[in-house]
Write a structure and sequence with these properties.
Number of strands: 13
Strand content: 15-25%
Strand order of the largest sheet: 1-10-13-11-12
CATH architecture of the largest domain: 2-Layer Sandwich
CATH class of the largest domain: Alpha Beta
Order of helices and strands: EEHEEHHEHEEHHEHEHHHHHEHEEHEH
Amino acid sequence: MTRNADIEFFTKPSAMERSIIHINVADFAVAVEQVLDRRLVGRPVIIAPQGAARAAVVDMSETAFQAGVRKHMPLNRALRRCRDARVLPPRPDRYGQAMARMLDAALPCSPLIEPGDGDGHLFVDVTGSSRLLGPPVDVAWRLGRRIRRDLGLAPIWSLATSKLIAKTATRLVKPLGEYIVEPGDEAAFLAPLPLFLVPGIERADLDRFNDFNITRVFQANGLTADQMQILLGHGGDVVRDRLHGIDPSPVRPVDQPTPRVVGCREFGDDTNHRPQVEGSLYRLVEQAGRQLRCQSLAARRIGLVLEYTDGVRRVRQTRAKPATANDFSLFTHARRLLILAWTRRVRLRCMTLVCDRLTYPPAQRLLFASERDIAEKQDRLVAAMDRIRRRFGTGALAMGRTLAA
């Protein structure tokens, strides 16, 4: 028996005009290290695991960024570009403590606070709090000052009517600054911006726009709904909404579980037949991928739970870098987890796939041309398969590996 992958959908926002603050500490890991060691201030700093054969950059200071260092770049290449950089190992515990203190600073402002994944980001919804706390812009200013005073960090902040506009605004003033987008100015604010600055525009969509020499938001907004649909397929309506500044997704309460996609396969007859298990896993991946793409989201973490006939459970998870909603990429991660978790000869009773830490799909293109070409082909293939299945049904196309399932 198969249960379809299900997503905890965003709740419908209030009809009241919203006031959402976005707090962003640029280069968060480096900023925390600089607070703890003032000798690092002003120096090029790279956060990366040391001693690993394929170490990659986790974060870097603005000085290192100006020298050409980028996230996920191989460490040896980054050091060739910035030879005097100080390399520090990642310390997740430190960054987690700093995020917790940022959350504590924001709690007096609102119960609706959505933190990022240990990356120095906070969304704070202060809608309707003016009588108690004062104008939203004053709340944002006081919150930024409190974080600077209590933690020694220098946050960027923005104020807007949606998470999408607020996040875009902080990107414009990075690494230091503040930005206020007045209600009703969302479309005008976005119009002159490059497309890659708008959260939620996938890499494949950017490439498609580039094919037609469309690089700015106002150029894309010149397309009709039908033209956008022809150009981008099923994602055209979602992209069109984002380019007009439409984003109804709410700021979740602090104690609310984050949305995730969950798919479960219960085997009618317990099995250890590898083609059947891998075929079932791919079906779960396809279901999860469709759910993510329909919501214009991508998963940053994939987990797999195996339940054996004798009641033993095995849980494995991995991070997806970059976040993905592509079936092929999701299956690569899921299959690796299956190999790690499936270590016993006992038959399997149930298999559960979990995709969480959902975010907007990354717009940044992959660094290496060979990887970029493969990813773009896979994205186009998945988009074409989605169009066929929407028109002719989900059974119109099937991957060969799913037949054994």
